[in-house]
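User: I'm putting together notes for a lab meeting next week and I want to include a structural view of one of the chains we've been expressing. I don't have a solved structure, so I'd like a prediction I can at least talk through. The sequence is below, exactly as it appears in our construct file.
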Amino acid sequence: MIVEVSEDGFSAAAEVVGGVLTASVSGNADLMVRMALEEFLRAFHAEARHRRLAGVTVDLRTLAFMNPSCLKALVSWVTQIQDLPRDERYRITFLSSPALRWQRHSLARLCLLGDDLIQVETLGA
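Assistant: Thanks for the context. Below is the predicted structure for the 125-residue chain, given as structure tokens.
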């Protein structure tokens, strides 16, 4: 079970819609929420593995800021997926906002780390 995170100025929730596991992350991911984000990602990863999914979606379009310690949590998650046997790995599609510069730069670097496991879709105006 994935427990929703709701802290001052930050939230993360997950749902399954049409067989797709989607996380929605919004607000500001700063040092104060790092541990909550790490726990959320652990549960999200466990759910994706339990369901034997080929891919998941993470909607970051309303995530205004993410500091380096929270970015490290994403890197750790991607590394966990890479450490799985090839037939158990799943892909991550990040939904990003073109208005948030940090997303362009950070997600581009994450794509380099994740090889073929990560895709970024920029949505909105």
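A couple of points you could mention at the meeting. DSSP finds three helices and six strands in the chain. The domain at 5-122 is CATH 3.30.750.24 (Transcription Regulator spoIIAA).

User: Perfect, that's what I needed.
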